[in-house]
Amino acid sequence: MASKPVLTPKLIIRALLIGAIVIALAVLPAFIDSYTLRIATGALMWAGLACAWNIVGGYAGYISFGHSAFFGIGAYTTAILMQSNIGASFFVTLLPAIILSIAVAVAIGGPTMRLRGAYFAIATWAFAEMLMQLVTVLDFTGGTAGLSLPAYLNEFFFYYIMLIASAASFIGVWLLIERSRFGFRIKALRDDEPAAESLGIRTNLVKVQSFALSAAITALFGSIYAYWTTYIDPYSVMGPEITDQMVVMVLLGGLGTVWGPALGGVLLWITNRYIWSTFGDTVIYLPILGVIIALVVLFLPNGLISLIVGRQRGKELISRILGKL
Amino acid sequence: MDLFLQTLVNGILIGGILICLTIGFQLTFGVLHVIDFAVGGWTMLGGYTAYWLVTLAGIDPFISIFLVFALFLLIGRGLGPLIYHVRTSKYARPDLMALAFTFGIFLFMRGGALWLWSYNSRSVDSVLSGQFLSLGPVTIPLMRLSAFLLAMLFSLGLFILLYRSRFGMAVRALAQNHDHAGLMGVDVKRVSAWVYGIYTALTASAGVLIATIYSVNPSVGVRYTLFAFFVAVLAGLGSVGGVLVAGLALGLLEAYVATYIGARYSLLIVFGTLYLVLLVAPKGVLGRGI
Fold first, then answer.
1. What is the ipTM for the molecules in this complex?
2. Which element (helix H / strand E) includes A147?
3. Among residues of chain B, what percentage have pLDDT more than 90?
4. What pTM did the predictor assign?
């Protein structure tokens, strides 16, 4: 393991910067109207979701197209437990939602993560579609009609709960992946799986652990989202658009970086809301997402964060673009 | 028993079209090593093109399918070099980047279609619509039969191209080994681009047939991408021959589930089976190779 980090000036500046961002986010609701507050809440949620997807997609190198399944598991667990016949309070539902998502992630993660690359992508997608179809035909999930939750109309509550969940996700991922042995294992796995295994890393265990962690965070946001919007149906919480956005946000921000998903998530969500307020719907947002993915893959494979961190990479990027012309 | 026979015929007829839908996809994987997420997108765009040709110019889909084929051959040929560029680039994981790239193309097509044409389904009419052929207890819609025959014709054409032409030999050489094929004088980039063009042409043509039998709307893309994955995985990714069996298998599976269990369960069972097949036999049930 690398030696303990020493308090260098660079590290202090970084800590101060992060502290400033956290304080700014904490006092933000006092200065904005409720419409902007809802957008900010959404931005925090999507940053957190991108962070969750990044664990599997960016660090472990397994591109999952099935994360909407876990978002849906969280949302539906909360919604079902909060129906009047059970009447659980919101915070009580979070634990079963997380436990269920971890159980599903472990159950399907073991066999699914034996598949590499495209096979894994197809399998997770098939799983998510299957789960969405299952929710559609079952009775206790409300079928295609969906479920309504008891409304709790306190925007501040949702803003702060998203802020806590999102901050906890990022700090957790930073500690676990950039500052612990687990991080070395998971990156070794991504870079060369047979070599990692030959060095004594139990790759199957690490894969399932990262998948379960990613699923648990995704489900947590699903739970909060369900309570926040007060109405869910199979398509709105399990539809492919959920996964699409998570993938694009991470790709745009920077695969396998800590802060890339935050950047990509916040930027894309604000774009999404801007388009929504300009055009009245978000349909045109989808082709824009598609173009962004294609352009990022062609010109900016390391994401936007590579423009900020390290000038060397920025230079590489410029030469790559100029080389194309 | 009559119902059983009718379902059997329905399953085979749809299976034939699924073969045409997947065969080019398999070829692309075999040659370019790219899983194209946009396969359902090409299907959908093919269907829409046929719809416009019949609505605006009055060209019957069974004739316009050849126009669609030519059009998408050119589109795919134009896009091919980009796919090739991403797949052979020096990124950390070119396979995943290529996956993400086609995913972006697919999102562009699906979102663009939704934006331009909204969720409404459009049906494509043909002179054969509503005509039937009765064979004992079994009734066969003429349109499905013709669609099946056309799909088989296209697939047969691909096999002849692959196994009876110099171009086909180059394609098969590429599928075996890129470097060696290049050393033997095959223009790897050009052949790859044409393979991508042939794939989009075949898939869009299958889309015309599907639109003629059912209808077309922007959300069918996701479904047919997963259907193509299903057939491809069952056949073994990259295996062109295996598609013949796997396509029929999916057609029959869907037909029997719809008849005996209920149409609303058919997608659930299809996706569930796909997931199980991937877990049990990720290399495919039928072996691989072109």
1. 0.83
2. strand A147-148
3. 44
4. 0.86
